[in-house]
Design a protein that fits this description.
alpha+beta, four-stranded antiparallel beta sheet
């Protein structure tokens, strides 16, 4: 499973940011509060501020501010 964070300007549908992150499902389970490993398959999940900070910390990246950020996954 490969994870990516996508960013959109609020209220817009145009993708303006995308960054793959090297985190596993096991890394993200506590951050996303998933109860099983299937919850990340085939969905785009809007990240709240606390999740953004934790993903940034775990992945050693900094995401642009002012965007609506979503976690997505693919094989």
């Amino acid at each position: 499973m490969i994870f990516s964070v996508m960013g959109f300007h609020p209220g817009r549908d145009d993708l303006v940011f995308e960054h793959s992150i090297s985190l596993s499902v096991a890394d993200l389970i506590p951050v996303m509060q998933w109860t099983n490993t299937n919850e990340c398959v085939g969905v785009d999940i809007r990240l709240i501020a606390a999740q953004v900070l934790e993903v940034e910390h775990l992945a050693s990246v900094v995401f642009p501010e002012g965007l609506d950020l979503y976690l997505t996954s693919f094989d």
